């Protein structure tokens, strides 16, 4: 059905001809990409969809549509937007989706892992990006009739996820970090960081927090179903300090966002700058969640009690804290 020939300029040309359908021709830099494209077309014939999907839009154009029609309805819209825009800026964004093969996706994956732009990222980060790219292409393929019969991301090997982080700030590091947060034009930053350390709430949960969810009298925050990562409602008790932070942030307002107009991306950038000013290495905002959870365990709360506060769904998620339980048992044994 298909033929692959090398042109004088060194590139590889694929020609697909089948009775009753329009001939397809595409040119690639490598034989591997050309062969992958030929296989995709053969799959289309097997499924009876040859010629039905539009492969001419670039990945960047597809992402732009996805950002408009799909992303806004998601809880993590802010972080998803900057992830997708980063893909648009990469050379892969200019690739026509009809020519997007597993070989091309694998090259993009490897460049992200190795830091071709000078900033290597973890396997866990690349997996999240691949999951997102896969959904973008599936949406285009199934809902918009754009792309290839086979999602090329499905054919690419995934890197291993990094081990769970167990970074915990020392008391001195917390003091220095919070001082650096205060030394900024962003008055919300020290409030948000300290609230995270007190409650183990996720960054997105804090940023989207509504005044109506905060009960300062009973010292609780009610997170609604759909507003959390697990889509399950939970009630977070507030320490005296956490209560004071929210009271300060809310003031005399009675409705709306606790921090109006704030985005997760803004918090991320402000936190990174504060961390650099503090001279603290290897700390991410999400580490505040691990730090707070560890504190709950050290206070003697049961796993069930901790999970009800943090929103961890399974017992296996609490296993990383079992060494703290072991220390308590050792003390009891004498």
Automatic annotation (TrEMBL):
Residues 164-334 form the Tyr recombinase domain. SUPFAM superfamilies: DNA breaking-rejoining enzymes (SSF56349). The keyword Lyase does not apply. Pfam families: Phage_integrase (PF00589). Residues 57-141 form the Core-binding (CB) domain. Coiled coil: none annotated. GO terms for molecular function: DNA binding. Keywords: DNA integration, DNA recombination, DNA-binding. GO terms for biological process: DNA integration; DNA recombination. This is Site-specific integrase. It comes from Paraburkholderia youngii.
């Amino acid at each position: 059905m298909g033929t692959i020939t090398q042109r004088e300029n060194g590139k590889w040309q694929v020609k697909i001809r089948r009775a009753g359908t329009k001939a397809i021709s595409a040119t690639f830099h490598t034989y591997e990409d050309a062969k992958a494209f030929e296989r995709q077309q053969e799959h289309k014939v097997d499924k009876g969809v040859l010629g039905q999907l539009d492969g001419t839009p670039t990945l960047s154009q597809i992402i732009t549509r996805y950002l408009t029609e799909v992303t806004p309805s998601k809880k993590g819209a802010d972080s998803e937007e900057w992830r997708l825009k980063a893909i648009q800026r990469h050379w892969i964004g200019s690739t026509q989706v009809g020519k997007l093969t597993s070989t091309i996706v694998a090259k993009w994956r490897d460049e992200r892992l190795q830091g071709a732009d000078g900033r290597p990222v973890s396997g866990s980060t690349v997996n999240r990006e691949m999951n997102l790219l896969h959904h973008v292409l599936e949406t285009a393929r199934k809902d918009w009739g754009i792309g290839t019969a086979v999602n090329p991301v499905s054919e690419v090997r995934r890197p291993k996820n990094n081990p769970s982080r167990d970074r915990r700030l020392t008391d001195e590091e917390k003091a220095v970090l919070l001082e650096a947060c205060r030394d900024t034009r962003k008055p919300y930053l020290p409030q948000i960081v300290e609230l995270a350390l007190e409650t183990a709430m996720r960054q997105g949960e804090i940023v989207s927090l509504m005044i109506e969810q905060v009960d300062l009298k009973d010292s609780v925050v009610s997170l609604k179903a759909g507003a959390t990562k697990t889509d399950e409602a939970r009630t977070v008790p507030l320490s005296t300090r956490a209560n004071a932070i929210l009271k300060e942030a809310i003031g005399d307002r009675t409705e709306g966002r606790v921090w109006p107009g704030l985005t997760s991306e803004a918090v991320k950038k402000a936190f990174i700058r504060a961390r650099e000013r503090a001279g603290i290495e290897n700390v991410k905002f999400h580490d505040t969640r691990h730090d707070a959870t560890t504190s709950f365990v050290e206070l003697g709360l049961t796993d069930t009690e901790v999970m009800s506060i943090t929103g961890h769904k399974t017992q296996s998620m609490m296993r990383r804290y079992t060494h703290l339980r072991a220390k308590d048992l050792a003390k009891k044994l004498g």
